[in-house]
Give the backbone structure.
Amino acid sequence: MSHGTPRIGLVCPYSFDQPGGVQNHVVGLAGFLARNGYRPSILGPGRPDALIASSLAEAGLPPETFTSAGPAVPVPYNGSVARVNFGPFSAARVRGWLRDGRFDLLHLHEPITPSVSMLALWAGSVPVVATFHTATPRSRSMRIAGGLLRGSIGKINTGIAVSESAREVVVRYLGRDAVVVPNGFSHAEFTADLGRTPTRTGAWRGGDRPRLAFLGRLDEPRKGLDVLLAALPKIRSGARELGIGELEVVIAGQGDRGLPRDCRGVGMISNAERARLLGTTDVFVAPHRARESFGIVLLEAMASGAPIVASDLPAFVDLLRDGDSDQLGALFPAGDPERLAAAVIATLADRSAVRQRAGRARAASRGYDWAMVGPRLADIYQSTLAGERIPSLTG
């Protein structure tokens, strides 16, 4: 171990050319570590451009914190399209980064994905903490990987899953266990604007009419945009019956998909733009169909005070649970546009109860701030460096 400041190598498999939950988690964690006596370094695919520099700056990190593993290529993964890189060129980049970094510990994300995380697992010679983000109900590739990579998995000193759903995948396909530590986020980033006042008495958060918002890739079926679009006619009809009038529907995210004329597409947006959008949203809709292990965007909506309507995926149910029965958002059966429409209409109809629920959600989201999640990860680092395995991933 290096003398003085511990050196932590963080490896992200997904490209930093595009925003994403895992990328944001890794950068946020690096920011926490830098503020708390560690020396973090990030390796991942992508060009070290303005997007990455901005993300690092928001976390209080200098540009040299990030090292590019080279350009990424799109590959199908977990019902989505992941931009990763893997091969001899990437392996050489990984070896050089490990040599120059002289790390005390590696924290690898999604280490059994064919990516720089897997390459770092193979090439590394220091203690390894691994975080698993995937929630895949059935996966032949995961089952095969669990068998073929048994020796590599044995190099992982400590396994982490971001939710119980992700942990179940580790247990099912890798035959091992992992401790659950949720994703972290910057709570203050999504609450900075909450002191604003409406433009007029009774005004909606979105202005003179209620705003519905969706954030996610437009062309990934598992994100469920098609479910929301199918529900919109009934939502609009219900709003008129309530005397609310017309709605504004904002769709944010990348993807080659046409949108109805009565929806406003804003494309890919920055972290700051996402915070502003959520802060002026009257109903945030998360219509995801499957394979979501956590739901960082739900946390961001909770912190922003945006009322939430979400599908009943296990990870979303866990995140929106307040005690044994009370929920911090309205839930509907995944893939059901009729029930989605009913949940949105009910949310628009009872603003007083919804505001109270949103207030509880905002308070609950503080538990996921880096000030709460970061120390748990730091404790795991210290235990791992001390030779403990919590829990063992070696059988």
In short: The longest strand covers residues 39-44. The mean pLDDT is 88. Residues 225-241 form the longest helix (17 residues). Residues 7-184+369-385 form a domain with the Rossmann fold fold (CATH 3.40.50.2000).
